[in-house]
Specification:
Order of helices and strands: HEEEEEHEE
CATH topology of the largest domain: mini-chromosome maintenance (MCM) complex, domain 2
Shape: elongated
Largest sheet: 4 strands, antiparallel
Strand order of the largest sheet: 2-1-7-6
Helix content: 10-25%
CATH superfamily of the largest domain: N-utilization substance G protein NusG, insert domain
CATH architecture of the largest domain: Sandwich
Oligomer: single chain
Structural class: alpha+beta
Mean pLDDT: 84
Low-confidence stretches: 27-34
Length: 128
């Protein structure tokens, strides 16, 4: 069985290809890979600290005391919970995150780490 395409079918396929290619091009232009990002660390529902996620930046943050603690590691453009004494270690097993809107959650100690984009918006206004 041969597939026979009409002139209208060919135009439709061409239009769909054009739209998909221009959509990819727009997304690369509008959301460049090097856009600025940071990580927000929330404890008990309140913003505890914001750290930049950029090459060359390193920091280690300990939240809690001798018991009930998380150690958060920032290395370049990524962040993770390196160590915690919570029972299931889900926050540690999540591993590194580096793209918005990824997040790490430690439910027992109510800690949330969110990657957020800090790239300025180029939209000045919306006109109707």
């Amino acid at each position: 069985m041969r597939l026979i395409l009409t002139k209208a079918d060919k135009w439709l396929i061409g239009l769909l290809l054009f739209l998909s290619v221009t959509g990819i091009g727009f997304s690369v232009y509008a959301f460049p890979a090097g856009s600025g990002q940071s990580a927000e660390i929330w404890v008990d529902g309140a913003l505890f600290k914001t750290v930049p996620l950029k090459e060359g930046y390193r920091q280690e943050i300990r939240i809690g005391g001798e018991m009930r603690y998380d150690i958060i590691q920032v290395e370049g453009a990524r962040i993770r919970v390196r160590e915690a004494d919570c029972p299931e270690q889900i926050c540690v097993l999540t591993g590194w995150i580096n793209k918005a809107p990824q997040q790490i959650v430690c439910l027992p100690y109510r800690i949330v780490i969110k990657v957020v984009s800090t790239a300025p918006s180029e939209i000045d206004a919306i006109v109707r």
